[in-house]
Fold this protein.
Amino acid sequence: MAKKYYLPLGDKDLGVWLSNLAVGVAALPAAWGTAITGNVASLQNDAAAFNYELLYMEAAEKFFHSCVANKDALLSGPNTGIASVLPVFNPPAGAAPTAVKADIVGRVIPFVQLLKQNTLYTAAIGEILKVIGDEITFDPATAKPTLKLLYTGGHPLVKYNKSHTEGLYLFSMRGSETAFSLLTTITKASYVDARPNLVIGQAETREYMGFYKLGDVQIGLESDVVKITV
């Protein structure tokens, strides 16, 4: 049966994968040679830098939403008689990791190729290091999309794993709405929800869920609901 590519697509999953690879390679004996064991520090630094960057992005997103809420309060919030205070950015706890050069993926792919060419490499080791992709299975009846949300350019960005389908029926519920309704049909792997808020100047929570589509037919299971405040 065919296998999918071993590198995860999502940032968080990729961060976990990089950390697992660094830990696994560090545990390999010296018999693997310096071409493998000599890269341990580089793998560790790359994993630490990437995962810290993800934490920094989360902190920056929280700071952004705090700034938006503060701006909205300045414009039309209740007058409490207390002067507004600018939000404070809180970076991730702990010291920043060692800085690394760009193109982590461009370094790790040739390393994995070198790893697999080593005479000590086995499929069992490949499974431990997660450098062997999972078998591809697809059942239209049970296929379930995974939605992810980002906030970019002042609008929510909905991303999903397209898998072996032709797209997604994306449903939305926001603000005072009490039921989901079809927002759009997506054929690409992402969608920017550029609608203005129901009440201009007032923050609202937007919730999204979706079903896969094949042709013009809705298939599979409903995705988990994801939400964001804009």
Q: What stands out?
A: DSSP finds five helices and eight strands in the chain. The chain has a mean pLDDT of 91.
